[in-house]
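As agreed, record minuted below.
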Amino acid sequence: MTINRLLIILFIAVVAVGCSKKTNETNEQVVSIGNKLSGTWVQKTSTIFYYDDYGNLLGAVSGLLVNLKLDSGLIQAYDVGYHQTLTGQYSVMTASRGNVLDMTVGGVTHYYDITVLNPPNLTLSETIGGLNNTSTVVLGGREIIYTKSVQQNIYTSSDAKN
């Protein structure tokens, strides 16, 4: 009976140590990404792609350009078209699909996949919608029904850390 208890205690200890190492690695990765994001990011392009239920591309349009200043969890977003600055907060989290920038600006939260982070280059991608979701958009003078949109934003920075 004593050996069984000892084996159970050893098993729990090994599992706990193994889990804490993974958690520490994830936390270190998130901190590293957060450090690389710090700086002023000038948006070069914003493209919104529209897809049907089968993943076929229906069309694409240019989105609004919004420059970002990220620093220690605080964000300033400058809408180039409307000449408006909004403030908010951001954080980085690791999801099953990769690293995600959780950004709340002007009371609206967005979850952007960080698809490229190699200062001075940054690409963020946000997917909205999915199966069994239908919305409409006018593309080229035609109203199109789509199920998913993906917005891809490409930035550059002169002061981001590598």
